[in-house]
Amino acid sequence: MLEFLDSINHWHWLAFGLALLAMELLGTAGYFLWLGISALIVGVIFTSLPMSWQLQWVSFGVFSLITTWLWWRRQLKADTKDDQSRDLNQKQKQLVGQTLVLEEDIVAGKNRIELNGTSWMARSESNIMKGSRITIVDVEGITLKIKATE
After folding, report:
1. CA distances (Å), 6 to each of 28, 40, 53, 55, 137, in order?
2. In whole angstroms, what is the distance from residue 43 CA to residue 60 CA?
3. Which of 99, 120, 124, 138 is the most exposed place for a label (fewest CB within 10 A)?
4. How many alpha carbons fall within 13 Å on the CB side of residue 24?
């Protein structure tokens, strides 16, 4: 086995990288993309810099971790930005701007209100009497911020 590992040259790494990229084309959702790129990087470095087989595999592992982590950071930032601007299937964001009539008195601070058959945590800056019309002005997490409409 050690003889086989010692006989690996840069062409093997380049072929391994291309094989991983070809597997990515089968629809693995990015799992083999960064491994393939890492293998290609090791192959390119190995063409000009002699490395032991241990250093080759350690380099492959390190490059795989770095490229995957960098992509994860970029993707997480993009996903977070998309989630904040998206309203579809986010019921609490769709409630902003709705008006309703209170069925019970609200005191300043946190309260619970019934809205569309669901109980919601609501926060008000002032006391609001039963029968008054309120408007949902903002959502902070799962708490609705409400105010009396005039």
Report:
1. 31, 18, 6, 11, 68
2. 9
3. 99
4. 15
